[in-house]
Structures are given as structure tokens and as C-alpha cells.
Amino acid sequence: MALVASSCQQADHETAAVQNEELATQYLEAYNAQDIDALQAVLADRITMYGEEHGPDFLLDMIRGAWGAFPDITLEPTVIAGSEDYVTVRLMVTGTGAGEFLGHDIDGKDFRATETILFGVTDGLISEYSYNWDELGFWTQLGVVESPYPEE
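RESULT FIELD:
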């Protein structure tokens, strides 16, 4: 009987992992469509970011800022890996600047950067959000900083 319970638990874990991968896909599709309503539908009422709890508007304001500065910004996943309580997304972020961003002229400048996002999932909604991305590459491509690497 323990074997059956173990198999059922394993199936539950696998189902949760797949559901979390689908949730991450919904987030990415909503982001790329710049659909605030669809984003709100996948976010919990409270989202933990780097140990601090915020309402969803905190994250949505960050996203709106990115959309304003890079109207064509796109998140293209290369890996989506779910588990029972988390899903990790490895992606390529691309965009073209429009106007200024954080006081820097980015108009017409393209960037391409890698990013990894970790979503925590509670009750089928994103309840935790953290990311790590190629910020140096981003600013270098926009001409804000010089590359520390010698040119070949």
C-alpha cells in the first residue's frame, strides 16, 4: 500500500510542476502581449520579492516601466522547469529603446540579454518573484557603460 501512496504523491508533484510551468507560460504570454488584466489574473494578492512582501501593483509598475522604455520588449523562454512550489524560467529578453530610461538616452538602441526568473507559486498564483539578468550586457549594448572586456 505504501508504494501506491508514494506513486500517487509522485503524480501529484508532477501535476503541480506541469501546472506551474503552464502558469509561467501564461505570465510570459501576458507580458509579451502587454496585457495587464492577464498578468493580474496570474498574480497573488501578495508577492514576495527578495524577502519583502508587496501588492501586485509593485511588480506591475516595474513591468509598465519596461514597456514604456522598450515598447517592443519580448521575453522568449529557452527553459521552463517546474516543481511543486516553484518554476524557473530561463529566457532571452530583447527590445528597442524609446526615449529615455533612468535618465539615459536609449532611443533606437537595441538590446539582447539573458534572464532567469524564479516564480514561487501558492494556490495556483505567482506569490514570489525574483530574477537575475545580464544587466552589464544590457547597459553596455545601450551605450551607457563601456564593456570591461577588450575588443578583439
